[in-house]
Task: structure prediction
Amino acid sequence: LGLLTLAGLTPERFAIEYHEITDLRNLNELPVHFDLVALSTFTAQFYEACDVADFYRSRGIPVVMGGITVSALAEQAGQYCTSVVIGEGEPLWPEVLGDFERGALKPRYVQTPPGQFDLRDAPMPRFDLLDPAKYNRITVQTSRGCPHRCEFCASSILLTPRYKVKPVGKILAEIHAIKRIWPRPFIEFADDNSFVNREHSKRLLRALMPEKLRWFTEADVR
Result:
């Protein structure tokens, strides 16, 4: 979802391809016709992502890495890529693209102060880049952050100290965009803690009722 969101922020003058690393089999079969590569990864795949970044960088193709894991391990990730994005990607991506076009990518792009991106300004993710036949679910984010500070949690509280919600209208627009490629989708609401804001959650659930949507999410025990 992070890369699809950045794709939604990318001007039309850029040609975009989206690839799942599992579809590319091994390093020797990675496509190399790109001018710029953006990588996001789960923690469990961090070392594989670093191998991919190193592969492209060794061929003179600049690589930008970001996301929760990379933000937490920026020093380590920076050894394998051209640039590291630390924090929320939306406010930093236009700067990254501008520097890329000027041939002046910086080693680090840091959101300052952290967590200030307003989900009311969230772009439409490029769900059209997906082949829905490859997925058992597609993710939609309805909120970001969490008002709790549980010591075991490694979610986007690392990206934003501020809990925030996405307007219901924007969420419905994303669901409708997904339905254009998958008429009866299965949705994961990829929130850190759904239903913390009960009023927002009630508005969302009421709006979802006519959609006849299959979905799941994660919430705390309350």
